[in-house]
Amino acid sequence: MMITARASFVRMSPRKLRIVARAIGSLKPLEAISQLKLMNQRAAEVMLDVFQQAMGNAKNNFKISPETLKTKSVQIEEGPRLKRRDAHAHGARFDAGIRRKRMAHVIVILEGKE
C-alpha cells in the first residue's frame, strides 16, 4: 500500500530541498522525522511537515502502524518561478536585471503493510 503526501508551491529552491531529501531518503519515516528535527535548515522544516502529513495519512486513512512504514521515495520537483526586476547595473549579462524566485513541489511516498 502506498501512502502519499505532498506540499506544492513551496517558496524555496528545489536545489536546497534536494540536499535534505538525499540525507533522509533511505531512512524509515520515524527515523527521518527525528533527523529532520535536529537539522538546522529551513528546508528541513518543510520536509518535516510533509513527513508528518504522510504519517498522519497512514494512521487515519489506512489504519497502518507508523512502525511498519518504509520510505519508498522522496521527490523534489521544480515549480514555477516568480520573476522580479533587479534595478542594478549588470553589464552585458544575459537577462540583466531579472531575479528568479524559485518554487518547488515536495512529494513523499511511504510504503506499508496492510
UniProtKB/TrEMBL annotation:
GO molecular function terms listed in the Swiss-Prot or TrEMBL record: rRNA binding; structural constituent of ribosome
Domain of life assignment: Bacteria
Keywords: Ribonucleoprotein, Ribosomal protein, RNA-binding, rRNA-binding
Official protein name in the record: 50S ribosomal protein L22
Biological processes annotated in GO: translation
Source species taxonomy: Bacteria, Candidatus Woeseibacteriota
Subunit structure: Part of the 50S ribosomal subunit.
Transmembrane segments: none
Recorded family membership: Belongs to the universal ribosomal protein uL22 family.
Gene Ontology cellular component annotations, sorted alphabetically: large ribosomal subunit
Purpose: This protein binds specifically to 23S rRNA; its binding is stimulated by other ribosomal proteins, e.g., L4, L17, and L20. It is important during the early stages of 50S assembly. It makes multiple contacts with different domains of the 23S rRNA in the assembled 50S subunit and ribosome.
Protein's organism: Candidatus Woesebacteria bacterium GW2011_GWA1_41_13b
Family matches, as PANTHER family: CHLOROPLAST 50S RIBOSOMAL PROTEIN L22-RELATED, LARGE RIBOSOMAL SUBUNIT PROTEIN UL22M
Keyword rRNA-binding: yes
InterPro entries cross-referenced by the UniProt entry: Ribosomal_uL22, Ribosomal_uL22_bac/org-type, Ribosomal_uL22_sf
